[in-house]
Design goal:
Length: about 325
């Protein structure tokens, strides 16, 4: 009943761990998978190690948190060891895309019936993205391109995703080398997210993740007058951004015909249903794990199944895009 499909990949339910929360080690990601998530997105990593920003890197605000971690990571060579230890069970074979050639062999029609591993990667140039993709595409089921972080260093993150031309070039470079589906994670901090979505699609993206954190935002300590975060500003996540995320999904669904993964402020099954109604095929959950723990995945799955039975939905496909019906 809860199964959903994205770019030929079957997920046992629509709940996925979002990048940035509990995605640094295979042990924590396997814990999330054992807790009911159908897939996990790793913490974003790059070609070379990156220390990120010094502490404090997160601060709680009304409606969520602001974070500026700076995309800290050990680099792809070190992180590959964690990828190899993620629980995942693959079935079937890949199918080549004749229009693109052997270098763009992807998992069209690939049957996967267990847990899905998604690598979140970033860089500052199309070449850097391509290098990382080439290192990991045989170790995961999908790759999510982080072109949307609002506090990234050195021309990474939103500096790319706010430009339709740069978005196109990064997605194109990654797609050319990947044997697995490519997902572009987009920022809401743009004039027209539909334009960016279509640039990613035209470059060959197999799916989109909407949205990354909002902002940047800031919190100042009133006794000292000093911004709390070491970077001064960061990205806002949590329940307060959910209405914006839902609207972004709704708009892109109407104009861009590739699957969407919704993310932003999800706390319970009602939030999941909203994202599905708006056009998401699946959702990612992050900040709420800090409050509810990994059990949030099994709780939502149970509640979502009850909702579907009570409202005569036989499958997730019947819910996707429901808000667009006349």
């Amino acid at each position: 009943m809860l199964k959903t499909r994205i770019s030929g990949i079957e997920f046992e339910n629509p709940l996925i761990l979002a990048a940035g929360i509990m995605g640094s080690t295979a042990a924590s990601m396997n814990w999330i998978l054992d807790s009911g998530a159908s897939g996990v997105v790793t913490k974003s990593f790059s070609k070379e190690p990156n220390k990120g920003y010094k502490n404090p890197t997160t601060v709680e605000v009304e409606g969520g948190i602001i974070n500026a971690i700076g995309l800290s990571n050990p680099g792809v060579s070190n992180f590959k060891n964690e990828l190899k230890l993620i629980k995942r069970n693959r079935k079937g074979t890949t199918q080549e895309n004749g229009d693109k050639g052997i270098d763009s062999k992807i998992a069209i029609g690939k049957e996967i019936s267990d847990k899905i591993a998604i690598a979140s990667v970033y860089g500052s140039t199309p070449e850097e993205f391509a290098d990382v993709v080439l290192e990991v595409h045989d170790l995961v089921d999908m790759i999510e391109l982080n072109i949307s972080c609002p506090h990234a260093m050195g021309g990474c993150g939103a500096a790319i995703g706010q430009d339709p031309n740069l978005t196109y070039e990064v997605v194109k470079a990654a797609k050319k080398l990947s044997h697995v589906p490519i997902i572009a994670k987009l920022t809401p901090n743009v004039t027209d997210i539909v334009e960016i979505a279509n640039s990613a699609k035209n470059a060959g993206a197999d799916a989109l993740t909407l949205i990354n954190s909002l902002g940047p935002g800031m919190k100042i300590e009133i006794n000292t007058g000093i911004p709390i975060l070491s970077n001064k500003f960061g990205g806002m996540s949590g329940p307060a951004i959910k209405p914006i995320a839902v609207k972004c999904v709704f708009d892109v669904y109407e104009s861009c015909d590739i699957p969407i993964i919704g993310v932003g402020g999800i706390r319970d099954y009602k939030d999941v249903v909203e994202f599905l109604y708006a056009g998401s095929s699946a959702v990612e959950i992050g900040t709420s794990i800090m409050y509810e723990g990994p059990k949030i995945f099994s709780n939502i799955n149970n509640e979502l199944k009850n909702f579907m039975v009570e409202n005569n939905f036989n499958s997730i496909d019947e819910i996707i895009g429901f808000a667009h019906k006349d």
